[in-house]
Write a structure and sequence with these properties.
alpha/beta; eight-stranded mixed sheet; two-stranded antiparallel sheet; Alkaline Phosphatase, subunit A
Length: about 450
């Protein structure tokens, strides 16, 4: 995919924390015009007032590589071995008429809390280009790389939306998604902060914030030593530049030693709840996401890898599906128990699905390839009605035959629930005005849109 000529190449990542100054976080607060301070604009500005919003935050569970729709949210147990493999049964859910893959029993008990989007389609089978389609809700053209949804939410509901939190408004757990530029022409300020580390380990070592080898006591001693050595700062404490440095340093230490950084302290949660999520990396990542939106973070992405199953698909699914079932069901219930589900959009998807017909022959040995013609997503909360199915594929899951849903339809619906005007404009470094959604200017042909998801909004 071509890049916009002036697209910044530096990544807003945990390494940025470490490279931008001796304190890591303090350096980040200063770098790039104080990246983490709310209320500063980037390129462009909101073109119209923010509408009344139903959702405050998004938890995106990105199934990196593309999950099979037949083996998750759109089972076809009667299609035969070449399509359903060993999954010859489907599970009835607690909503009449909705069924799931037999490997998702916990999610089957709470279908009233989510909606299945079985009409997802875009027809692209390349990881990078499909990821861009789904994440940015746009086709790639004219060399323009538009920002993904996380960056746009960070722009409108974060930096320019009155967000006052100390935590970055866009966080990925635990690694960047890759495949595409998350912030596009908006630049590195709108890149996500990636935590690194493994939430399944105690302590959860968030690079730049939590260290496995540096105790809290030692961090406090370092802070005292830094203050003692700061003779110039003491002498020129009224200088605006010095005051800015001191303010950034205080904010950094608030992240490291104060209550803000405690968002990453999963040990504060009850052992029973952590067990319910599953003690592995993905399960604890979902628990962390709940803690982050509880503190007002507008956009959290969990980058859950391992779904690109070209070979030996079903042995991989024997591990991945129970893990997804346990963690996602726990997250939905936990959000509901904390009164957060109504204000939090949960979005589960990959860049595409996988080929309905299984490749049994060597070297694939029961693998599934890339498939953008028809796939599924799950959405919940934030104004989306639960207990529904939107869209339908044929008896083998090969073609969408009812209510197609394109990426721009889904993202446009979520933007509206977040109070972001689809016609609001972003300005590229070259002065080009770009609306949040291509639907705002009828840039999408009628045949390539099913419209916003009004039936569940």
């Amino acid at each position: 995919m071509s890049r916009y000529p002036s697209q910044p190449e530096d990544a807003f990542s945990r390494r940025t924390f470490l490279r931008s100054g001796s304190l890591g976080l303090a350096g980040l607060f200063l770098a790039g015009g104080q990246l983490l301070r709310a209320g500063e604009g980037g390129f462009g500005a909101p073109a119209s007032p923010v509408r009344r919003k139903k959702a405050k935050s998004v938890i995106q569970i990105w199934l990196w590589g593309g999950p099979s729709h037949l083996d998750t949210f759109d089972p076809k147990p009667g299609a035969g071995r070449d399509y359903c493999g060993p999954y010859t049964k489907s599970l009835a859910t607690n909503v009449a008429g909705i069924e799931l893959c037999q490997m998702l029993p916990l999610l089957a008990k709470m279908a009233d809390k989510y909606t299945l989007l079985r009409g997802m389609t875009h027809g692209n089978n390349g990881h990078e280009t499909a990821a861009y389609l789904v994440q940015a809700g746009r086709k790639s053209d004219n060399g323009l790389v538009c920002p993904g949804m996380g960056a746009i939410v960070s722009y409108f509901n974060g930096y320019n939306g009155g967000y006052q939190g100390m935590l970055p408004p866009y966080i990925t757990v635990t690694t960047p998604q890759g495949r595409f530029s998350e912030s596009g022409f908006l630049g590195s300020k709108y890149k996500p902060f990636s935590t690194g580390g493994d939430p399944g380990r105690d302590p959860f070592c968030v690079e730049g914030i939590v260290s496995e080898t540096v105790t809290e006591e030692r961090q406090r001693d370092r802070r005292v030593l830094l203050n003692d050595l700061d003779g110039l700062g003491a002498e020129r404490r009224d200088d605006p530049v010095v005051q800015s440095i001191h303010s950034s340093r205080d904010q950094a230490y608030e992240m490291i030693l104060g209550t803000t950084g405690k968002a990453f302290a999963l040990t504060e949660e009850k052992a029973e709840l952590r067990d319910r999520y599953g003690r592995k990396k993905f399960g604890q990542s979902c628990l962390l996401a709940r803690r982050l939106v509880e503190r007002g973070v507008p956009f959290v992405t969990i980058n859950h890898q391992g779904w690109d199953t070209h070979k030996k698909h079903f042995p991989a699914m024997a591990q991945k599906l129970p893990e997804l079932d346990q963690a996602l069901s726990a997250l939905l219930q936990d959000l509901s128990d904390h009164g957060l589900l109504d204000s939090t959009l949960v979005w589960v998807s990959g860049e595409f699905g996988r080929t309905p017909k299984i490749q049994w022959e060597a070297p694939w040995d029961g693998g599934r390839g890339h498939y953008g013609k028809a796939f599924s997503a799950l959405v919940a909360g934030g104004g989306f009605r639960g207990g529904a199915v939107v869209g339908k594929t044929d008896e083998r899951g090969e073609t969408v035959i009812e209510r197609p849903i394109y990426p721009w339809d889904l993202l446009g619906s979520m933007y509206e629930l977040l109070g972001i005007d689809l016609a609001a404009e972003l300005t590229t470094p070259q002065g080009l005005k770009v609306p949040v959604s291509p639907l705002a200017r009828n840039e999408v042909a009628a045949k390539d849109t099913g419209g916003l998801l009004r039936e569940i909004m």
